[in-house]
Design a protein that fits this description.
alpha+beta; Arc Repressor Mutant, subunit A; Serine Threonine Protein Phosphatase 5, Tetratricopeptide repeat; 2 domains
Length: about 270
């Protein structure tokens, strides 16, 4: 699979001089080629506002990020975090007396990743979308080490969205006959969530479409053994049905042997 893309999503060329907030592989800001490190005391504030994708009330921000203590102290912490950003020369937030938001020209790398996932899920992906950027791995583990409820919720949301996108990508690549790339995309999803049956299905379907029923069989048996061991359940009958290839399929002659082996291992 072609993964020779930038390590981070970047804005389009017409916006290349606009600030980019990077939430993947660290929290920092770039303006053109210049990198600006976010002060430690302002990281949660910038991440929270960037993840909201809309204007948020100052009281909500202060209460969420500094829940212990009274409102005045939380409001003071918010003012200090804003001051640290300005002192560092990071001009990405617009603040008034009541609310906060990102400047309209600011790009967030996670938003670009989310848009990529949406195009794949909705079936509107185009040529450049049919590849996995290395930054997908960072997005699957968004803001590692952050355990606030708002961070955990967003981490799980983007994780599920990207897993669906990888499965959709594998299916699209399979339909295009790009079997090696389809297997790569499915394996990416499987490695992120080994017990996820839809990811395993995408992998097995890619193997079957390429005529590698032996690989499909190996993947199915390994998955079946794992879910039995870890969850005490069997894969759904729908997953097994993926291996029922048509009589004219190149690997159809292996089907009977697989069924016999499966019966022996049950």
């Amino acid at each position: 699979m072609d993964t020779h893309q930038a390590d981070q999503p970047v804005p389009s060329s017409e916006n290349s001089g606009a600030p980019v907030v990077h939430l993947l592989a660290g929290l920092y800001v770039t303006v053109g080629t210049r990198r600006q490190d976010v002060p430690e005391g302002s990281k949660q504030l910038l991440a929270y506002v960037a993840l909201r994708r809309r204007r948020v009330e100052r009281r909500q921000v202060a209460g969420t990020l500094w829940p212990f203590g009274d409102e005045n102290r939380a409001a003071g912490n918010l003012r200090s975090a804003l001051w640290r950003l300005r002192r560092a020369g990071i001009d990405v937030l617009v603040a008034d007396k009541w609310s906060l938001a990102l400047h309209s020209q600011v790009t967030v790398d996670l938003h670009l990743m989310d848009q990529w996932a949406t195009r794949l899920i909705e079936g509107t992906a185009f040529g450049p979308d049919l590849a996995v950027s290395p930054s997908v791995a960072d997005a699957l583990d968004l803001l590692p080490g952050w355990y606030d409820d708002w961070a955990l919720t967003e981490r799980e949301r983007i994780r599920q969205r990207l897993l669906h996108a990888l499965e959709a990508l594998s299916g699209r690549l399979t339909s295009l006959g790009r079997f090696a790339d389809a297997v790569d995309a499915a394996l990416f999803a499987v490695s992120a969530e080994p017990l996820r049956e839809s990811a395993q299905r995408a992998l097995i379907e890619a193997h079957v479409a390429e005529g590698n029923l032996t690989e499909a069989r190996r993947s199915f048996l390994a998955y079946r053994d794992q879910v039995r061991r870890d969850l005490g359940v069997d894969p759904s009958s729908d997953l097994l049905a993926v291996l029922d290839v048509p009589e004219d399929h190149p690997a159809a002659h292996l089907r009977t042997a697989f069924r016999r082996q499966l019966a022996l291992r049950t």
